[in-house]
Amino acid sequence: MGKEGVNLLKLMATYDKRWGYLLLFILVLLPMLQPIGMPISVSELTKDYLKQLETLEEGDIVLDSWSTEYSGYMELKPGMIATHKYFIKNGIKLFICLGHPEGLALVDALLNEEIKGYMEKYDYTYGEDYIILGFALPNQAATLAMATDFQGSVKVDWKGDSIKGTFLDRIETGADIDMIADFTTGAGNPGLINHIVLTFGTPMIQNQIGVSLPGSFMNLDAGLITGLLASTRGGSELELLIKEPGPGLIAMDAFTLGHYLLIILIVIGNIGFFGWTKKVSEKMESTTIR
Amino acid sequence: MSWFFKSKQVNLAILVASFMIGFVPYFIKVPQVNEFANTLTNISSVVGQFTIVIAIYSQYRRSLRFIRERRKGWVYNIYLLTFMSLMILIGFTWGEHNATYMWLVNSIVAPCSSVVYGILAFYMFSAGARAFRARSLKASLLIVAGVIVLLYQAPLTGSVIPGIEPYAVFLTGTVGMSLSRMFAIAIITGAIMLNVRMLTGRELAFLGFAREEES
Amino acid sequence: MAELLFEIPGVESGRAFGLILILGIFILGIYYMRRGKLPYIRRVAAIDAISEAVGRSTEMGKPVLCSYGTGGFGYAVIAAMSILGHVARTCAETDTRLLVPTGGSHTSYLTRELAIDIVKGQYTAAGKPEMYNEDDMPFLSGEQYSFTAGYIGMLVRDRPGAVIMTGGHSSEAMNIAEMSNLVGALTITSGTYVSNMAALACASDYIMLVDEQPAAGAYLSKDPEQLATIRVVDIYKVLSLLLIVVGLLVLNTTGNDFIRRLLAS
After folding, report:
1. What domains, with CATH codes, occur in chain C?
2. Which of B38, B175, C135, C206 has the most CB within a 10 Å radius?
3. What is the pLDDT of residues C252-261, one digit of tens each?
């Protein structure tokens, strides 16, 4: 007895989605292990973000808000690394406020691993150039308190050491902050916009994950944020612009291949739909006894 | 004395007062109230953090029951309870900056959190591949728009087909953003109306006063 | 940002028009709530889908899983409670087990108590108080992804016939919707988080977009307050549309940015 031949159209319509997962996994993994080096384009969004960074001068103080869990950090990592490298290279002072309890892991991951060598290269030291205030912005009230009376609401860093005698002595209210850099995975901390941006006109740049970009586009369009870095792709573009290649550029090959695979599967699915599924359902309709 | 705290009117009065303390200084310049509003909000956010106690109790109770009944995957509940207890013990005894605690956070909590988030990519991938079918004209237009945006999102495309950027930016920046804006207007208006209902005493379920069933 | 059209003495700069809009909502809301006559809203298609979902689960002998969101007391969560009440009542009447995972944020413990009251109340009203089981409404976690992991665990272990995920869910909604699809459940979701909508529309069998979920909640509960909310939201949507159209026409014909300055005030 002969076997029935494989119906290609049926296969296209009914393939197990796990094959898609496997293909995606392979196409993402291989370029990460062996980068291909495909060219990338730089969007106007990232160019505008860099223009905002370039308005800062050496010694300016930036509120560095990390409102992301560790999972979001994975997506924001290229943008965070590139932005912080820019800050370090140009002598920008940072005070880092965590908006999520998992931020503790981020401090280790970013400052003690990813850019530690870079900080040593530019002699960027704790207490002189950057201070970590810890879980200082958990909600809007804390942000309001910091914005209206910084010295009254913030006295110690994340380990309980006094911040007196550091560059933070220059900050009385939100007006003394030169810029806000918000790295967030969702709505972030609306208090930054409500109580600092709107009240004092402080410029704010944001690095946002892909799924939450629609909300951030609204703020960008309204002028509430002045620069927006879009997820891993934006981070990789920034790496290219500031000539500091990092994990973002490595990931772009995988990014490209993953997107193209999805488009191919959509096309395959539609071919299968028109060639098989639709015909089967039409046949069933015509043979149904009413 | 308990009648005082159980009284609907007293609870409502406290609610209205708290609302005014938070709402009024945002619009009307009343500096004296600002500080009190900050303190009040800080108190409420600290109280909110105690949900962790409910979570821990619920998790212990549920996991122990699963272990006792040998439900599917009960071994993972032993793992969960062990590490939960370990982290609570180490965190309270030696603090959050302790090397062992940080190792547990970096080696277990952080990767687990990343995995759940990373799986999203696969799920979105399979959902997109499954859902985009040209069943009608509208669906076909959606696919065309989706493919344009997907192509633009792939970094290689922008360098190979630079002309695609204006179309993709129009779709996301104009069409997408207008929908987001209307979305935001609807949700925010609804949220303010909810506040109106709460302040006028017509929605007190959150204070623990269940509405009587109407027959 | 646009130059302000006006400033009211004593009011914070740039917030006067916002205050007027909010006061407008207050006045309209109180008017519609006290009016006596219930505002009309159409029957949302998803309501039939909910009945179909529960019926499907009953026939298959599988439980129904219904969640109401991860946030605290918000607009979407309150509306989701009405849907939860309807689902609980239907499950009680058909002797179908109902699972309600709770948690997901630090404020979710507040809503959990209300959800328990609602489910218990509906079981009692249907004459089956013994159906209530606290372990069917576990508080999974106050953290988003821990909640997601627990939710997915429930899906994989209990294999519900239907998953009704309404209220305020953020990025975990995609995880849950796709996993419920994988376990073969009929998935009904609501898109109250703008970033989720597209993904949920792909992953779910039925989706309630934006206001459809509060409208479904209001329709099912026939609650005058919820109906008044829907009416006021609709009025403000129309008002926004008018402002946008008029503002665009005026700006493009006369060059006057009156509306923009008004809104910025």
Report:
1. 16-38+233-264 (no CATH), 45-221 (3.40.50)
2. B38
3. 998 888 888 8
